[in-house]
């Protein structure tokens, strides 16, 4: 009985010894290098088992293996024995298992891990984390896009594990997170040493459309294009260049986002402080056109001081023209200061005010009655617009086109581009209007009526008979005698008692040069003759009849 017990104890101790001495497959075991041959290390892993491992598995990517006979190493036991009777072992797998244990702990503790970039793959790079291979996405290499990753290859550096899955063997790391954390610490330190209003030196690192980023010694600040100079800057490259050292002022510090706003113009005198003294109202200055918009043009009076010439102040004559048709960018122009608003940093300028009002000039050089000649620019329902000197127009109203035709008929004789002559009748400078007359060129009326005045007796020829009176002609000039003026006697006020071609003596009752009309009346002539006869030959008080008086007057005429 005792013998059986001792045998059982011996078997148990033997099995226990075998379990301890014989390593299990799929585990990491320690072994000793007993030989190196044909690029491989022969390793004794105990229990009379040996295996072979390529020397490259003992080296880091890009490095040479440093291993010697007698070195103790850890390897991964895949199988106890292969077809050749050797143990199947791997240094890489051993390192990977150890690395995964270490990396999982670092991931759980949110600690950095050390590794080296050793290869490029689609979308990023591969990183050796001391036995485990991780993926480094291209977006996680640096805080800014990296064009050349060559200098980073094979260099030991810290990484942050973003994600890992041991079952699938996936690890994703970030170098950018480390840099951002480092920069954040550096920013915090730099920001703690600067304050708003302070002037510091910095190096221009990058230039964009809206400004430049300036390195202040570990932290970047934005120098916006509007803070580079008091004058208008079209692009930051006009002021700064990459790599240039510049002096800037700390304009604003955002403690939460650690963003720093910088300025260069703040270190210079503000030109607006002396605008009112340097550019008094009504003064004329030469400036340069810097920008043209639909509503006007901006003119630089001096660096940092710009004024707006509104489209309404650009030309006396071009009212509905785009400013770009009047001035061009970079053109030197003379302008007058019209208004200054220092609070809003605005100056209103005038371009046309530097030239004389063309209507004033025209009024001085073309008094009423001056003949002019010009091209028909436009034809409207109320008259003709004639182009005159200095790009101004004059208007011939319908009523001033012809003496003989109605305005609507007379205007049909004109076309755009026709050259016409006219006479200035009125110039209204305030309303910018010039009135012209074409019919005033015809002074035949003056020649015809020369010597004829109110009360004169003239002989006319009947040219037409109408119900309302008769049309007559005097020296080629037409006039109309109304029915009521055909006779002193109402019974004789009949147009039909006249015939075309009859010659009739009439009295001139009115001479109107403006309308070129003679007022004529037979009735007025008869009344005048009666009055004269009464004065010469008697009166109604003497008892003589009108017939007697007229008879006596006729006899006196016969003598």
Automatic annotation (TrEMBL):
UniProt cross-references to PROSITE patterns, sorted A to Z = S1
Q: Under the GO molecular function aspect, what terms does this record hold?
A: mRNA binding; structural constituent of ribosome
Q: In the UniProt record, does the keyword Repeat occur?
A: yes
Which UniProt key words apply to this protein? Repeat, Ribonucleoprotein, Ribosomal protein, RNA-binding
Ranges for domain S1 motif come to 26-92, 110-176, 197-265, 282-352, 369-439, 455-523
Domain of life per record: Bacteria
User: One matching Pfam family, short form?
Assistant: S1
Which biological process terms from the Gene Ontology are attached to this UniProt entry? translation
Provide GO CC annotations from the record: cytosolic small ribosomal subunit
Q: What does this protein do?
A: Binds mRNA; thus facilitating recognition of the initiation point. It is needed to translate mRNA with a short Shine-Dalgarno (SD) purine-rich sequence.
The record ties this protein, via PANTHER family, to:
30S RIBOSOMAL PROTEIN S1 (PTHR10724), SMALL RIBOSOMAL SUBUNIT PROTEIN BS1C (PTHR10724:SF7)
Family stated for the protein in its record: Belongs to the bacterial ribosomal protein bS1 family.
UniProt protein name: 30S ribosomal protein S1
């Amino acid at each position: 009985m005792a013998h059986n017990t001792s045998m059982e104890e011996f078997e148990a101790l033997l099995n226990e010894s075998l379990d301890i001495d014989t390593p299990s497959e799929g585990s990491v075991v320690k072994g000793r290098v007993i030989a190196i041959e044909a690029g491989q290390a022969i390793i004794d892993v105990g229990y009379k088992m040996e295996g072979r491992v390529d020397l490259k598995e003992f080296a880091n990517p890009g490095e040479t293996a440093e291993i010697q006979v007698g070195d103790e190493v850890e390897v991964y036991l895949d199988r106890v024995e292969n077809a050749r009777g050797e143990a199947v072992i791997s240094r890489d797998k051993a390192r990977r298992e150890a690395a995964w244990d270490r990396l999982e702990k670092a991931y759980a503790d949110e600690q950095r891990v050390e590794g080296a970039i050793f290869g490029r793959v689609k979308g990023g790079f591969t990183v050796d984390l001391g036995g485990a291979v991780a993926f480094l996405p291209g977006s996680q290499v640096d805080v800014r896009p990296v064009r050349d990753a060559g200098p980073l290859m094979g260099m030991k550096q810290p990484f942050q594990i973003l994600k890992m899955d041991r079952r699938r063997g996936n690890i994703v790391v970030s170098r950018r997170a480390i840099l951002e954390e480092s920069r954040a610490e550096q920013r915090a330190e730099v920001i703690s040493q600067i304050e708003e209003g302070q002037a510091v030196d910095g190096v221009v690192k990058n230039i964009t459309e809206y400004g430049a980023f300036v390195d202040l010694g570990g932290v970047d600040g934005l120098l916006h294009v509007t803070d580079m100079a008091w004058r208008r800057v079209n692009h930051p490259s006009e002021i700064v260049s990459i790599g240039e050292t510049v002096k800037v002022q700390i304009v604003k510090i955002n403690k939460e986002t650690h963003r720093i706003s910088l300025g260069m113009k703040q270190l210079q005198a503000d030109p607006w402080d002396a605008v009112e003294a340097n550019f008094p109202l009504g003064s004329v200055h030469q400036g340069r056109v810097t920008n043209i918009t639909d509503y006007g043009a901006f003119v630089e009076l001096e660096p940092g001081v710009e004024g707006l010439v509104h489209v309404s102040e650009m030309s006396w004559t071009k009212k509905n023209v785009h400013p770009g048709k009047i001035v061009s960018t970079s053109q030197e122009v003379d302008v007058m200061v019209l208004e200054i608003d220092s609070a809003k940093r605005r100056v209103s300028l005038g371009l046309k005010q530097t030239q004389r009002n063309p209507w004033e000039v025209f009024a001085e050089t073309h008094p009423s009655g001056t003949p002019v000649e010009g091209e028909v620019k436009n034809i409207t329902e109320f008259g003709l617009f004639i182009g005159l000197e200095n790009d101004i127009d004059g208007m011939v109203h319908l009523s001033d086109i012809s003496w003989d035709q109605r305005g609507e008929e007379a205007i049909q004789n004109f076309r755009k581009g026709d050259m016409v002559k006219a006479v200035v009748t009125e110039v209204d400078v305030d309303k910018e209007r010039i009135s012209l007359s074409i019919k005033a060129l015809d002074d035949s009326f003056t020649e015809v009526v020369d010597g004829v005045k109110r009360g004169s007796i003239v002989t006319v020829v009947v040219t037409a008979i109408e119900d309302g009176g008769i049309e007559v002609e005097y020296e080629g000039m037409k006039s109309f005698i109304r029915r009521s003026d055909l006779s002193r006697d109402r019974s004789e006020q009949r147009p039909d008692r006249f015939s075309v071609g009859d010659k009739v003596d009439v009295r001139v009752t009115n001479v109107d040069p403006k309308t070129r009309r003679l007022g004529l009346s037979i009735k007025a002539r008869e009344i005048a003759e009666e009055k004269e006869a009464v004065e010469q030959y008697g009166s109604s008080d003497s008892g003589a009849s009108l017939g007697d008086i007229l008879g006596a007057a006729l006899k006196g005429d016969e003598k």
